[in-house]
Amino acid sequence: MKLNIEVREESYIKSYILILVIGILEGIEKETISLREATEMLFSPYTMQMVKNCPDLVNIIHMGTELEDIASLIPEKLIEAIREMKEVCHREIKLSQERDERYVFYELDGIVSKDPDWGNSKCEYTYGDTFIEHGSHHQVEYLKSEAKNNGNQFGQWTDNQQAADFIAQIAQSQGSGIHDVPLPLGVLNRIFLANDNQIKANMARVIVNPDNTVQVSYPFSSSYPH
Question: Got the DSSP string for 23-34?
Answer without folding.
Answer: HHHHHHHTTSS-
